[in-house]
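WARN no homologs supplied; continuing
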Amino acid sequence: MSNYFDKKSTLQFHSGVHDDYCHFNSPSGGGGPGGFMHAGPLGVGHFKPDDLPHPNSFVARSLRPEHFKKHVVPKNSAKITTALLRASDSSNTNEYYDSLIEIMNQYAQVYAINTPLRIAHFLAQIGHESGFKIIEENGNYTAKRMREIFGCKGGAKKYNAAKDECTLGRLRDKLWTDEARYAQSAKKLLSYVYCSRGGNGNEASGDGYLFRGRGMMQLTFKKNYQAFTITHNKKNPDDRQDFVAKPELLKEKKYAVESAFFYWDSRKINAIADTDNVKKVSILVNGGDPNDVNYEPNGLSDRKKRLERVKKALGI
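OK structure emitted
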């Protein structure tokens, strides 16, 4: 159920879908008592619960269809702008950011990242994670670097570079004993370190490399590509895709962007963003135990700085 606000008449409407009918409730003057009104032929896949009321509905009857979205907008919503992207990360050109705006605002509505606070946290996190660039995990690491990233229990923070060893013990001993096999070989390394988890097959299957991190939030693992396929097709019935069969689609701008919204939505981060807790948001994005008061997610200081800049640009 979504709230809508008519900027001319100051009426609020509640819209929902019941077969071919829409319910519009006008609680105060000018719009009648509300009720179920026939909205005309809506067409398959063209009307969803979070959409604006249909232009043929009782609510919109006095507005020309081409002006409908100009006068009726989601209540308390906010838009993503080039200025907000630049506030989070200034490393790209305005032209590049301009090319993202329409796609980002489309999916901001689809995934309900459409309040100032949610947008602020979302943009701050993407700015830190990828700088809004479309990334595909490389995996061509030196021997020491691959051990730092993937070799130790407790993660990279538990790697001692001076000793080339782990302070809490090794997680993947083969990165030391079979160094020549994995160093500077992305396919072999990622097939190994991502094998047999997240829906991936064993090392020999190559799933770890096939479903490596892609997109603005680095979607990784076969199960996440499967989940993204299901969610995308549900929310975009006119653009059905199979990201398991074609994982390289996440290198395309529109899917790289949407995958970041999906990543956020799948971890239910909106609810935490609503509380304005940047540490917990960062843990949900980057990993770690949100209940460990002593745990600090990677790059927390930078994430906070980006968040403050976006908030300032939003006036919150």
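The CA atoms of residues 205 and 266 lie 26 Å apart.
OK
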